[in-house]
Design a protein that fits this description.
Blueprint lengths: L4 E6 L3 H12 L4 E7 L2 H11 L3 E5 L6 H11 L4 E6 L4 H9 L4 E4 L4 H12 L4 E2 L1 H26 L3 H10 L5 H8 L3 H15 L4 H14 L6
Parallel strand pairs: 1-2, 1-3, 3-4, 4-5, 5-6
Helix pairs in contact: 2-3, 7-9, 8-9
């Protein structure tokens, strides 16, 4: 079949590599055109055979990430599918950032491996469901934390926002009161409310939190 998916398999564990080669090679629409055990082998296979997909061990000699980066840069038509024993979300993010098109755990089934190779060969991305769930959960938690932090400031009144902006300048309660024509006692009352709403322990933490918020705002255009 001329339209078979051409695949290279690179893993430094011969027994596992043989299993992957057998699983993929037994499919009528897949042809294994090369195999190796290192990052250098991956580059050689890409250069000599120009496969559609290279199935690559994440932790092989020479560095799986380095190989992915070189393949993405020098052989952009070759799609890389990473295999690993470690269910690490940061590794997934790093691999995808460097050009990997898929990420599977080595405990995956033969049918899932075959289907993933087919998906990746079409230019689509695929991540093991358990890893994808972890990535989504972490992203969701990060988003929730950011929203909560934003909500802290949304609870402030205009007067409290005004006092907080002056507090960032390092002013004392008396100085803030003089600037706003308010009593020191009134400023102290407002500051107590500000600390509670921002969920911080003291005025220093409040000022640091406000400074960080101000630094994230886009600069005003001229």
């Amino acid at each position: 079949m001329d339209n078979r998916i051409r695949v290279g398999v690179v893993d430094d564990h011969p027994l596992y590599r043989d299993g992957v080669v057998f699983t993929l090679g037994s499919q009528p629409d897949i042809e294994v055109v090369g195999q190796g055990a290192s990052a250098d082998d991956a580059i050689r296979i890409a250069t000599d055979h120009r496969p559609d997909v290279i199935v690559l061990d994440m932790s092989m000699p020479g560095g799986g990430i380095d190989a992915v980066e070189k393949l993405a840069r020098d052989h952009p038509t070759v799609r890389t599918l990473m295999l690993t024993v470690v269910a690490d979300e940061e590794q997934v993010r790093t691999a995808l950032r460097h050009g990997a098109r898929g990420y599977l755990l080595k405990g995956t089934s033969g049918p899932e491996l075959v289907q993933t190779v087919r998906v990746v060969s079409q230019g689509e991305c695929y991540v093991s469901p358990c890893l994808a769930a972890k990535l989504l959960m972490r992203t969701s938690l990060a988003s929730t934390r950011a929203e909560k932090q934003t909500d802290r400031f949304s609870d402030l009144t205009p007067r409290e926002e005004q006092i907080l902006s002056i507090l960032v300048e390092g002013r004392s309660n008396k100085e803030i009161g003089n600037k706003l024509d308010l009593s020191e006692k009134t400023i102290k009352h407002h500051l107590t409310n500000i600390l509670q709403k921002l969920q911080v322990r003291n005025r220093v933490e409040a000022a640091l939190l406000a400074s960080g918020r101000m630094s994230q705002r886009p600069a005003a255009t001229q």
